[in-house]
Amino acid sequence: MQPKKRFGQHFLHDPYIISQIIEAIQPQPNDTIVEIGPGQGALTFPLLRKIPQLHAIELDRDLASHLTQACSSDSTKGKLILYNQDALRFDFSNLGNQQPLRIVGNLPYNISTALLFHLFTQADSIKDYHFMLQREIVLRMGATPNSKDYGRLSVMTQFYCTVIRLFTVKPGAFLPPPKVDSMVVRLIPRKIPLASNFFHKVLNQIVTQAFSQRRKTLANSLKGWISAEELKELNIDSRLRPEALSLTEYLTLAHYWQKKTTDL
């Protein structure tokens, strides 16, 4: 089947890379695994040789039909439960049956960041994630303060998860080849959340505001939110730029902003 540009499709075909990803996932028979964007089944079929059942979410109706037919005609593989839906609107928490999910997938580059944020809000029902993403995205996810890759995605990803970069994948592993390198990453949700589910919305607001003007100082980027005097009281230098603050310092700002707005 021909890749469709509107879905940002790049089909993985390299057997060595596929085997590396399956080895990284280490699927076990009792795992509840959900694959996002199975495409032509590069990971789907190897996974179904390892586990009795696999959930998969595929928006493309043609691919969904192809996968369903291919799996139903092969009795040597496990059962594929396929959802022809948009992963950006999918409620993953309904699949767990009190057992944490394992989420895998070669995520479309054009929706990867939005999809990550959607998945993070359901992290309490997820054991781990194994994703293939644009290499630049993975570098940003695990970036540290005062680095060029550090930003909103870094702070929010690390708020929810431990980020483990696994290996780089060159464009030739896909058809058609993308114009950039990819990378496989493992994300492990924090067993003890850093804050309540409600709090992540407040943190996201503060981080988004700060990085909306990342070349300006905090005094300017947070103007109207938290004053220079208030920053000083929190032991945060208002002359710093947003990329200089650690996750801990952003948590401090968010806690302060939450209390400030609640007391109004």
What does this structure look like?
By secondary structure, the chain is α/β, with parallel strands linked by helices. The protein folds into two domains: 5-189, Rossmann fold; 199-263, rRNA adenine dimethylase, C-terminal domain (Helicase, Ruva Protein, domain 3, Orthogonal Bundle), CATH 1.10.8. Helices cover 35% and strands 19% of the residues. The chain has ten helices and nine strands. The protein has helices spanning 15-25, 44-48, 61-72, 112-120, 135-141, 152-160, 199-211, 218-221, 228-233, 247-263; strands spanning 11-12, 32-36, 53-57, 79-83, 101-106, 126-134, 161-169, 174-175, 182-189. The strands form two sheets. It has a seven-stranded mixed β-sheet. Strands 1-8 form a two-stranded antiparallel sheet. Strand 3, helix 3 (61-72) and strand 4 form a beta-alpha-beta unit. The radius of gyration is 20 Å and the shape is elongated. The protein starts with 10 loop residues before the first strand and ends with a helix. Mean pLDDT is 88; it is low at 1-8.
